[in-house]
Amino acid sequence: MRLVDERFERLMVRRSIVSPIETGTDRGAMVTVWLPHGVGYCASADLSGAGLQRAVEAAEHWASLCERCGVFDAIDLHALLDSREVPAVDSPIVQPLPARSDLLDLLKAESDTMRCDARIVSWSAQLAVTHRIQQFHVDGRLRSAQAMQFVEPNLIATAAQGSLSQTRTLGGQYNGFCQQGGFEVILASGLLGGGARIAAEALQLLAAPACPTGSFDLLLAPDQMMLQIHESIGHPLELDRILGDERNFAGGSFVTPEMFGHYRYGSDLLNVSFDPDVPRELAGYAADDDGEVAQPVQLIRNGVLLRPLGGGLSRARAAARGVMLEGTANSRAVGWHRPPIDRMANLNIEPGDSTFDQMVACVERGVLMRTNASWSIDDARNKFQFGCEWGQLIEDGQLTSVVRNPGYRGVSATFWRSLAAVGNADSVAVLGTPFCGKGEPGQVIRVGHASPACLFGQVDIFGAE
Amino acid sequence: MTLRLRFDDLADAIEAHTREGEFACALLQAEQSDFVRVNGARIRQAGLVERGVARLRLVQGDRQAVHLLTLPGLHSPQGQALRDAAGAGRDAVHRAVAEALDHLRALIVDSQADPLLDVNRDPVVSDDRGALPLSKPFDRAALIDTIADAAGTADLVGFCAAGPIARGFCSSTGSRQWYERHSVQFDWSIHLPVDAADGGERRAVKASWSAAELDPQALHRAVLMSCRDAQVMARPVRRISPGDYRALFSPRAFGDLLEMLSWGGFSARAHLTGQSPLSRLRNNESRFSPLLSLAEDLDAGFAPGFQADGYLRPRRIALIDRGGFSDWLVSPQSAREFGLQGNAASSGEAPDCVRVSAGALAADQALAALGTGVSISNLWYLNFSDRPSCRVTGMTRFACLWVEDGEPLAPIEAMRFDDSLYSVLGEALEALGDRCERLPATESYDGRATGGIEVPAALTGALRFVP
């Protein structure tokens, strides 16, 4: 049984008007019955003894049907269950959050700062804080208990004139700056004092020319690398996609089970890790939602693909097909009302040895892009097209003009092989998204992505009006 | 029945625990859903989810605060157990609402006067339950057996969601507005083996079936038909180069394109804050084809007739009329903020019950009218690549076919398009189908969605594919 007790609070000041304070509580349990060859679940907010007993009966009914006509024929599911206790883990909170009224004052101050020009037609400052306590019990024994606090600040400003408009944000329009912790997250985000910069950059973009079209070098800042990692490394490596579970909705993967251990995913500079231990990163945890202990592992080393993002159940299914894979503890659910599936958690690019200035200096003709604004990728997570909020030309080793609506296209299977330089630790940002969608029924889950800035050679870049 | 029971408990509790000088209301979103994931025509993951979330709002003078509360239990026992559980459930709801209202009173201390506060305090009572199913419970085993039998050896991947969903608005002044639908929705795809000799391209067809209750024979027929449809995908994949192509959109693909217009296209707030993809349409700088008319139309039956502030929505709002901008959606908050006439839109100001006017193209003439080009069954992962010019990018997916002289010849590899809808659905739009397909929403991210679209097929003379 997975018991989740979540409390959240959302504060927002939009166009200098304080929105109603919104809080919430969401408490419930998912009971999962594991028969030797079938699994069924029932999610209920009725936590009385009678309510949980009824949930067991419903879950058992589905498990029996699954045993009769499911995908686990060749698997001993009971062998996957582990009831040993995992040490309790809480989010590290360095500085407790200030009182709500103080937080609102901070947001109002930034909102007022953004209202600096008649062309700024929309502006908002917002903060979401979620506190989650989760327990996982196996056969009546507590296996893991975790307490997490997620902090998601953002600033958004839109400048418009005539039929043109440009939007600039603190961490993307979907809260790319999001971490576990306390007030230190807000301080690290740049929210305090950030309103003036966000608004000024929106105005700067409004006056900027369109991004040129052509084949150029591409320098991606961490707040676009976050999306690049997510879509073209994270999703293709999810083992349930590789096993075909998502083919009806989120899609499959261009990666096949035979590729692990030798496939060249990227250049020698590409090193990718699954790391649940990075302080403050959004999807850090001690054990996944099937109770497996989470540990850091490398997925791609020096460009070579080593292992998928696959939880215990997916690995057992792969093994039953004759494919023995090491994986990760990433069987995760968005809440008590959804069953766990393979998800990214903290999926990171490891830093290299180039400074940001060195990467700029080695580019003759290129574009620096910051902050994701648009994303689209095929169902195998291969052909992609992404757009960013902010572009800046790199000419003869120098950052020059700002350009608006920068975008680029590529193919995952070849894009990472054009990785030409990886920023050092100074360029790393710990980011993520609270809005990764997948699964049937749908689940929007939190994932973390830490990355340095990265340089790619000769990418298909384009602009817009 | 049980969802309504809990809604009445919620409404009773709000009336009982609101104090003098206060106004309270709630929007309930509830469901009892059996969910089944299928891979290879076998169960991958299955279970039952019972969840009801009330968005409880307390108003004191010109201040308000909001609390989302998960109701403690929605279960549906029978007989004496029903009576016992009903009492326990009612008590639990009353306790939860009383605590939540106390919490909201404390929140309001930190709140400021809200100049956008607008909620309907008139007592409105309505009850829209659509076609309720027969009294027999959902037969889980029959669903599984039907799918497995019809699919046979076919690689069927799908998802079934079955059971009631409900929306309700209630208030301390006696409003009780109710919307409830029972349905079985099965959404699936049939996948052919990947042929490495054919470039490893994945080939599949997509299908769906829905009804108020499970009809095993009808579902069996639908799955069989999709297995037959999949055979056309067995032909070698045709690779086409980037460029402009004539394109025939299925109703589902056309619906996906039009859904992009809902991303701020009809929102008064989006228009007035520089974020609408249809600003040029509203300003008469651009137009769609005169063939295109669409409206928010509650008679399509996809969504409740009330919104979160308790206001009744107009039965019909014309949004695009013969290619031109007709009207926008204005929430009560936007009406106050921008000094507009409101039309009881939701806070997101996006249509969720859309009817597109049919055209004259008969289904059996559509391929001939296409001539040579691509027939597109499904689109995937659409997003704006340039919002002001309504430029959209996305991928083709599932059964998209290369057609020559009206004859479907081969599946195409997944292609990316990137084009302005002012072009694709403007001068280039040649015809709309003479019949609309009814497509209920299937999203389930934060619970099963209401909403949907009735939409015909569409034929365009030019759709730009990019590398």
Overview of the structural elements:
The complex is a heterodimer of chains A (465) and B (467). Chain A is an alpha+beta fold and 465 residues long. Chain A folds into three domains: 2-15 and 89-207, PmbA/TldD superfamily (PmbA/TldD fold); 26-80, no CATH class; 214-462, no CATH class. Helices cover 21% and strands 39% of the residues of chain A. The longest helix of chain A has 21 residues, at 49-69. In chain B, strands 8, 13, 14, 15, 16, 17, 18, 19 and 22 form a nine-stranded mixed β-sheet that branches. In chain B, strands 1, 2, 3, 4, 5, 6 and 7 form a seven-stranded mixed β-sheet that branches. Chain B has ten helices and 22 strands. Chain B has 467 residues and is α+β, with helices and mostly antiparallel strands. In chain B, a hairpin with a 2-residue loop joins β2 (42-60) and β3. The termini of chain B are far apart. Chain B has helices at 2-17, 79-110, 140-151, 216-229, 251-259, 268-272, 279-282, 332-338, 366-370, 421-427; strands at 22-39, 42-60, 63-70, 125-128, 155-171, 176-191, 204-211, 243-249, 294-297, 316-321, 324-325, 353-356, 373-376, 378-386, 391-397, 401-404, 407-411, 416-420, 429-432, 437-440, 452-455, 458-466. Classes of the chains: A alpha+beta (465), B alpha+beta (467). Chains A and B meet through β2, β3, β4, α1 and α2 of A and β1, β2, β3, α2 and α3 of B.
